[in-house]
Amino acid sequence: MSSFIELFSGREDRERVLTEIVSSGLARCGVTLIAHVERATLEVLAVRSIPTPEPFVDGVPEPIGAISSLSHQLCAMATDIVPARTWTGDRWGPITGELVTVVCREGEAAISPVEEQFFWGWRYSNHLTAGFHGDVYVVTPGGWAGLLAEWSGCSPVLPVQAVTGDQSAPGVEWRQPVAPLPASPDDAGTAIPHAGDVVADSSGAPRPGECLLCYVSRMVLQFGCDNHLRFARQYRDARAPRATGLERRLANAGGFCDCEVLLNAYDLRPEHWLPALTHEEDGRTVIDEGERSPDSLPACTGVSTGSTQPCGLWQ
């Protein structure tokens, strides 16, 4: 699940959870901790560790296979510690957890390419769990800092035992980190876009009265998703230029790219789903295939010019 929605309401909760993660016994220079945190209670449910990979040079994956390898590794980690997202019959179940990444290293308590690579690693991990991609933090002997929320502080810090490598020090349990997964051969030569990249526009303007969701769905079906809010922005620029908060509103609902708007932020209303396929067997009904989205949408019911709200097909 690819999203970031702020988990913490303030510094106290943030530092308490970070302290619990760092105190798990796995913190050590050169190791990155991946924690599953329950969003409702902020309880740390599980912590795993991986060796921290070398950062990309100037923010560019070098080689490209490195980001793919990290994404596969994070996907496996997420699948191991977070339950799969459930299908309830008419919609996907809620996102209940958050994956918090904590890089343990020496140096300044400030975000560096070491931490930034995890943003891209999670972005392309494509795991189907009930957990959001949370923030990426660095914890050093001098304090901590966050990547997305841009918070920092003096506590927690990396324990001295974790810096010196004294595995026998009291209160520190050292476990062998999980070995990296190899990159998929299908990923060879796949270019990874960088934050801020400008994506070339595709042809296709909104139809008269067409709503944002119907337009984005039509464009994604035709051109695919490029991991940006490409078509959502095109719609806004063409039909609702005053809707300057559109990206923030979609992101708050879990829509950080066009396909996530359709997967996370909105659902097609149940009456527009195709019915389940069933057959009778020994006097009982057997479901061959559950309710599913149609191959093509019904005609958009329309919205007024200047609106970025969905039409009546969506909820």
Detailed description of the structure:
InterPro entries: DUF2695 (IPR024248). Residues 284-315 are annotated as: Disordered. This is DUF2695 domain-containing protein. Residues 284-294 have a biased composition (Basic and acidic residues). Residues 302-315 have a biased composition (Polar residues). A six-stranded mixed beta sheet has the order 2-1-3-4-5-6, with helices on both faces. The chain is 26% helix and 16% strand. The model is unreliable at 59-63 and 166-203 (pLDDT under 50). Strand 7 and strand 8 form a beta hairpin. The protein folds into two domains: 11-187, no CATH class; 198-315, no CATH class. The protein starts with 10 loop residues before the first helix and ends in a 26-residue tail after the last strand. The chain has helices at 11-22, 64-81, 113-123, 160-164, 212-223, 230-239, 246-252, 258-265, and strands spanning 31-38, 44-51, 97-104, 131-140, 143-146, 152-153, 277-281, 284-289. With 315 residues, it is an alpha+beta fold. The protein has eight helices and eight strands; from the N terminus they run H-E-E-H-E-H-E-E-E-H-H-H-H-H-E-E.
Main features:
8 helices, 26% helix, 315 residues, 2 domains, globular, six-stranded mixed sheet, DUF2695 domain-containing protein, alpha+beta, DUF2695, two-stranded antiparallel sheet
Layout: helices, strands, pairs:
Elements: H1 11-22, E1 31-38, E2 44-51, H2 64-81, E3 97-104, H3 113-123, E4 131-140, E5 143-146, E6 152-153, H4 160-164, H5 212-223, H6 230-239, H7 246-252, H8 258-265, E7 277-281, E8 284-289
Parallel strand pairs: 3-4
Antiparallel strand pairs: 1-2, 1-3, 4-5, 5-6, 7-8
Helix pairs in contact: 2-3, 5-6, 5-8
InterPro entries: DUF2695
Biased composition (Basic and acidic residues): 284-294
Region (Disordered): 284-315
